[in-house]
Amino acid sequence: MKNYWEQGISFEEYVKTGRQRLENPASQQEADYKQYYELGLQRIDRTLKKYVPDENQLKELEAKNFEGKILIISEVWCGDASATVPALVKFFEGRNEVRIFLRDHDKSLINQFLTNGTESIPKVIILDKDFQVKNSWGPRPKFGTELLMKYKADPVAYPKDLFYNDLQIYYAKNRGKDAVQEILELL
Predict the structure, then answer these.
(1) Which Gene3D superfamilies does UniProt cross-reference here (predicted)?
(2) pLDDT in tens, 110-122
(3) Which residue of 2, 9, 97, 116 has the fewest C-beta atoms within 10 A of its own C-beta?
(4) pLDDT for 45-75, tens place per residue?
(5) What are the backbone angles phi and psi of residue 93, rounded to the nearest 5°?
(6) What's the rounded Cα separation, in Å, for the pair 176 and 47?
(7) Looking at the 3D structure of the chain, how many domains does it have?
């Protein structure tokens, strides 16, 4: 894990990389994902403007005396990531170091943390101070997963567009609070 940690980038570099990929795609996938990069960057900006760490959650983090690190497998174009990663980075800022590992750059890390056989992101890896995996979380809070299950159970009654809309409304209103809480419970 230490190797992956050292290959990780800062949140600022993550956003910068997303902007570069949007403006100058280096691959066909990056070009094909243009609209997702645009949306992801808009959502990241919105989350950064709106998110304020919850005082009770900060006290809970302090009480846990967590001395580890947070490694997040992510990509800017991902809707779930753009809603949660900025909140997590701001929450842990000044407390625990956070780095981001780009999933599409090297699949060997995500392949160790598959979600039901898929490379779903973001995936948060909680490391102790010796880079041992303590726990992992992702790709979305429980409520987001419930919405996904509702869509998958009956896509006719609950179509994809409605699912995506409901998920984004949830993310906009929740502002990362559920994701932070679920991760706090894993520390």
Answers:
(1) Glutaredoxin
(2) 999 999 999 999 9
(3) 116
(4) 999 998 999 999 999 999 999 999 999 999 9
(5) -55, 130
(6) 8
(7) 1
